[in-house]
Amino acid sequence: VQLVESGGGLVQPGGSLRLSCAASGFTFSSYTMSWYRQAPGKERELVAQINSIGSNTNYADSVKGRFTISRDNAKNTGYLQMNSLKPEDTAVYYCRVVLFRIYWGQGTQVTVSS
After folding, report:
1. How far are the Cα atoms of 12, 41, 57, 82 from residue 52, in angstroms, in the given order?
2. What is the pLDDT of residues 5-38, one digit of tens each?
3. Using one digit for the tens of pLDDT, what is the confidence trace for 26-71?
4. What is the full DSSP assignment across 59-92?
5. Which of 46, 83, 85, 101 is deepest in the core (most CB within 10 A)?
6. Are 10 and 111 in contact (CB under 8 A)?
7. How many whole angstroms separate alpha carbon 27 and alpha carbon 47?
8. Counting Cβ atoms within 10 Å, is residue 53 exposed (0-12), middle (13-18) or buried (19+)?
9. Beta-bridge partner residues of 91
């Protein structure tokens, strides 16, 4: 099982980024996928979650209306579109799947700063 995030970077407040999570080594289309983030000195927190077929999504209150989670099962890839970014969105973002145990990607840094 491998999860590889990409798409992070430095963006100004109000800007947008699209994160990707490329999955391999398992049947991606059978599992719920989640995005988490961890800011310095804080615990890792759930940002968004999407079920296996993409019909059900959930978001943290702090990102509702600004972030959109999606997936393309044909490409074994999940996405997190982040709009109207704020400095408090600065964190390392991780994708996660749970098979017989929890798997995490290596994370991608998102920095929102002017």
Report:
1. 33, 32, 10, 21
2. 999 999 999 999 999 999 999 999 999 999 999 9
3. 999 999 999 999 999 999 999 999 999 999 999 999 999 999 999 9
4. E-TTTTTTEEEEEETTTTEEEEEE-S--GGG-EE
5. 85
6. yes
7. 23
8. exposed
9. 110
Chain centroid to CA 69: 7
The SS3 of residue 16 is: coil
pLDDT of residue 105: 97
Q: What DSSP string describes 19-63? A: EEEEEESS-GGGS-EEEEEE-TTS--EEEEEE-TTSS-EEE-TTT
DSSP label of 14: T
